[in-house]
Design a protein that fits this description.
The protein is mainly β. It has 4 domains: about 5-60, OB fold (Dihydrolipoamide Acetyltransferase, E2P) (Beta Barrel); about 75-135, Beta Barrel (OB fold (Dihydrolipoamide Acetyltransferase, E2P)), CATH 2.40.50.140; about 150-205, Nucleic acid-binding proteins (OB fold (Dihydrolipoamide Acetyltransferase, E2P), Beta Barrel), CATH 2.40.50; about 210-275, Orthogonal Bundle (Arc Repressor Mutant, subunit A), CATH 1.10.10.10. It is built from 3 helices and 18 strands. It has a 5-stranded antiparallel beta sheet, with no helix packed on it. Helix 1 (about 210-225) packs across helix 3. It is elongated, with a radius of gyration of 25 Å.
């Protein structure tokens, strides 16, 4: 069954002066325009294509790859705004519509926004929505602390940064879990820190547990070596000072210091940390 807004592997039914007609099953033949047809394409051959609706709402196939497909979140730029909504650049000849009713704030040409792409049940058109929360599932999941996940940064809050987990759930990265502010729309690997009683998910951009601590310990040791065995950082140093020197959060810094201190690799002085001579 052909899925609109997705990649499909379809068989060439026939060639014509307009391109190749692909067998779309119950949806009939679907045109692959000449600009996508290669000289070796023949009837009976299978080809992977993306299926969407053209400017006249006709099903059409393309070998181009959109930036996101139906069922995905992405950070897209507004190409134009009209009386029906905003049109986003998603990498295909026909821009992606965000109707006014699906905008949190009126979108502005040239700006980029985080959106979800879906197939409208009534019109069967591919559209996008900036009201991403209604497309997220924050109940059914089986994440475990330490799991590595794919994140899309969804925006800043007073506590930290919201992030979409594996294109499905929403979680929170606390400010002390970041060494520099991530940008909205940025795709980054992340880690599950904990699942709270209310099913909300806490995240980190660094591995948690021993593996993450070891990485920070090594980074601290290297920085001490580069600075003649001394760093002007203490327990009262600000998170900003620590990020500037070490590119890690204050929480990660304190754990790394504690680990090296227990190993008797450093001495804690009034104005900083000094490497312990062997």
């Amino acid at each position: 069954m052909v899925q609109i807004g997705q990649y499909n592997k379809l068989k060439v039914a026939e060639m014509s002066q307009f391109g190749a007609f692909l067998d779309g099953g119950n949806l009939g033949n679907i045109l692959l325009p000449n600009r996508y047809v290669t000289s070796d394409l023949k009837p009976g051959q299978e080809i992977q294509v993306f299926i969407y609706l053209d400017s006249e709402d006709r099903l059409v196939a393309s070998t181009e790859q959109p930036l996101i497909t139906v069922g995905q979140f992405g950070y897209l730029k507004v190409n134009d705004v009209s009386n029906v909504g905003a049109f986003l650049d998603w990498g295909l000849p026909k821009d992606l519509l965000v109707p006014f009713r699906e905008q949190k704030v009126r979108m502005v040409e040239g700006n980029s926004y985080l959106v979800f792409v879906y197939l409208d049940d009534e019109t069967k058109r591919i559209v996008a929505s900036a009201k991403i929360e209604k497309f997220l599932d924050n109940v059914s999941h089986n994440y475990q602390p330490g799991d590595k996940v794919d994140l899309i940064i969804a925006g800043a809050t007073e506590l930290g940064y919201k992030a979409i987990i594996n294109q499905t759930h929403l979680g929170l990265i606390y400010k002390d879990q970041t060494h520099e502010p991530p940008e909205t729309g940025q795709k980054v690997p992340g880690y599950i820190v904990r699942i709270r009683e209310d099913e909300k998910i806490d995240l980190s951009l660094s591995p948690i547990g021993a593996g993450g601590i070891d990485d920070n310990v090594e980074q601290l040791r290297e920085k001490l070596t580069q600075n003649n065995g001394f760093l002007p950082l203490t327990d009262s140093s600000s998170p900003e000072e620590i990020r500037l020197l070490l590119k890690m959060s204050k929480k990660a810094f304190k754990k790394a210091v504690g680990s090296l201190y227990k190993q008797k690799k450093i001495v804690l002085e009034k104005d900083g940390i000094r490497a312990q001579e062997a």
